[in-house]
Give the backbone structure.
Amino acid sequence: MNEICNTCKYNTASGLKKLGEKVTDYDYVVALAGNPNTGKSTVFNTLTGLRQHTGNWPGKTVATAMGSFSYLDKTFKLVDLPGTYSLLSTSEDEEIARDFILFGKPDVTIVVADAGRLERNLNLALQILEITDKAVLCLNLMDEAARHGVEVDDRTLARDLGIPVVPTTARSNKGMDNLLQTIYDLAENKIVTQPHRIKNVLGETATAIEKLSNKLTDLYPGLPNSRWIAMRLLEGDTSIITALKEGRLG
Amino acid sequence: MKLSDLKYGETARISGISEQCQGEARRRLLDLGFVRGTIVTVQNISPLGNPVAYSLRDTLIALRHEQAEQIFIELEE
């Protein structure tokens, strides 16, 4: 890269400083979530400059890794979560991911998805959108998808999901500048999202959810995911019930 | 017909999960993509015939015989 690029305002990546493991004094917390084997750790390494072990097998990250980076005038703590297919299951690594998104209250959640296997990946994306509204879909492995002849209409996807969608190839650093800018804008509330939420709940279930969710918002005003928590409580999800009893939700 | 009856080379469409399979086990199967309407094929069979790796929604998922028995399918032409 030409030296002049480093000061050019159109080169958004020039505002990035990889801070490695130093995670004190940060402005925002950013979580990396996604299905197994979609490249979360690669995104993590690209942003933090760390060399968290990456590997092409599912279940590689079983605990969370942390690192940080600064972009423009803000410092971000980045948390690499274990890959998960769902937030509703109860295996240990999946619970780590869910608890972090739910109780860790990240300022921004990056949902990393395999562009070539969207049908499978969007399940988790939709579940995450039930919990948080500050999320960005990182459409990773674009190179692989293209090789398999898969094209993704990212604009329509963004409109349908109601959140920004950024195509990337983290391995070769493509699209990371857009991802950085989107993370920054989301954290600074410069982008307003309208996440897709489940609507077709009918009859008594809908009434019960409504009732419970209203009670939750009375208890914790400003709770962004009262409907989702109400649904989990109705399902008898023990970890959510415990969290409510211990007052960890608000 | 059950998923455990599916032979190598055959393609099937999932029609549902048994009522016997409830709670976490059911949730897990649904999360892995074993939902109604999904096309599934047998990809690999382990030396002892159990577990079997199924290909669905562009990913391989291995199931034990007991789990595959809980999933109902219809053969596709």
